[in-house]
Structure formats: C-alpha cells, structure tokens
Please model this.
Amino acid sequence: MTAPSRSSKSQRTETEDAGPDGVAARAGSPGAGLTRRLGSAQEVWIGLVLVALLVVFSLLEPDSFATSFNLLNLVADAAILLLLAVGMTYVIITSGIDLSVGGLLVFSGVTATKVMEATGATSTGSLLLGVVVAMLTGLVWGVLNGALVAYGRIPPLIVTLGTLGMSLGGALLLTGGVDMRAPGRLNLGLGLDKFVGVPVIVWISVAVTLVLGVILAQCRFGRHTYAIGSNSKAARNSGVLVNKHLVKVYALAGLLAGLAGYLSLAKYGVTGVSAHSTDNLQAIAAVVIGGTSLFGGAGTVTGTVIGVFIPAVLQNGFQILGVKPFWQQVVVGAVLIAAVYLDQWRRKARDN
Model:
C-alpha cells in the first residue's frame, strides 16, 4: 500500500485541527500552548497598564479624577465605543476589517429619529420602534458588507470603506447635513436614567458585551470565528460554512453599530452626523490594543474591554490635568504601534 504523501498528511492534519467545533490553530501542539500563554500574558500586561493609569491619575488629581461622578461619566462615554469594538473584535478575528461602523452608527440614528418623529415619538411604543429600526438598519448594512466580502470576493477594506461613504452620505441626504434632535422622552429617559446608580446605557453595553464574550469563548459560533481567522481553507475543508459565517460576523458588527447609534442618540440628544468620523479608527485601535491580532485567529472580548478603557482613561485624565488633547492622540498612537509590534513578535514565537 502506498504511503500518503507529506502534503496530504499536512492537509489532513490542518483540516482536523480546524474541525467545526474546534479552533484551527494546531491546538495540541507546543506552539499553540505558547500562543495561548503569550495571549494571556498580553491581557495581563495591558490590564496592568490600565490599572497603572488609574492609579497615576488618581494620585495626581484625587479630588477630580477619583470621584464616582467622574468615573461614571468615563464609563458612560466608553459604553457606546465598547459596542462598536466588540463587533470589530469578531470581524478582526476572522482576519477582516470594518471601517464602516461609524457611518452605520450615524445612519441608524438618523433613520431611528425619522421613524420616531413620524410615529409621534411620545409613546413607549414609538421609542421601542426606534431601537428596532436602528438595529435593523445596522443589520442590513452589515449583511451587505458580509455578502460583498464573502461572495463578491472584494477585500473588506474596500467594501467597508465604500459603505462608510455610502452610509454617511445617506445620513447627510436624509438630514440635509444638519443634526436632528432626539425625542425628548428618549433623551430624558434612557439617556439619563440610572439603575443602582449606574447609567442604563452602561448596563445595556455590559450585558451585550458579556453575552458576546461568552459566545466567542465558549460557543460554536465563536470557535468557527477563530477557525476562519486561523486558516479559512482548513475551516472550509472541515465543514465550516465560511461564507455564511462571514456574513453573520459582519451582520453582527452592523447590528451592534445600529444599537450604538440608538444609545448615542439617547445619550447626547442629537444624531451627531459629523461627530463620528473617527469611531471606526477608535474601535480598531481599542481591539488591537486589547490583544486581538490583525492577522486573525486570536483575540478576546476581555482584552477589547481593557483596550477600550485605556484611551478613555487617558483622554479623561489629560482633560482634568489640562494637558492638550493632541497628546492623547500621540500616546494612543504609540500604544497602538507597540500592540501591533507585540502581535508580530507573538506570531514569530508561535511559528518557531
């Protein structure tokens, strides 16, 4: 009997490692164990960086920074970006990118406002309809992104850059370039209400993040997401419906952008047509700082949460200290470069 060739052995091993219920990353090999340890170490290190920032700013401005009022505002400001970043985590783990989330946030907020105005915006039903419309709007854009990437074979950078322009342009057409005001009941209710002393917006963001964190870490959907980012060919050979899964991942990112648009509308009281042009870059920076690999196949929601709060704490602390806001951009940019460098070093260590 003829022995199988080395290439066929390699392909079979690759396929088995990327089974429908497993991650395609040579899970049983020493290299994979090292990768997991390095990934955990990176989360620990960025967590320590966040703790250090909190301690430093608390010592420098204890009467301003380390107050419950300021910290609650900090968390509330980060809650909306966190939703975008969690969706971006899924996308980047598949080795993709989504530049459209800021535009989808704006477009979803605008369409929700239009619907609520048309239905009177005075009843609870109208407000609930608004959030449904916002999320469905984001979902439709996300499905479009995913379909073009998966079935159209267009690079995700190009697809989402195009839909960013389309969604922002559509929002400008619907509003005439002028911000629309949110219904008063939405802004005074969901936007300002608190539960156990914490803004309702924060609770919503935390609940969504926890659910999606568990799904990514423990459920088949998350394992398939990792498998596609690790080796899409092996994942497909093992039975993962790669194209359909990619559509679902981009749809999830769009859905979260729609929810973020509604919560932004509730918090700030306006659609913010021109205020979210850099949200996509902030979300990507948070995800990468949090340890998700731009090459795909590695990352956690826990790391993303930490990555969201590092720039938020820097911005808040610099504002209190009276430091020019430009320095925040410099520091965040340096941290982002360091995170990408660490990711490259981690990949080299895994390959060796």
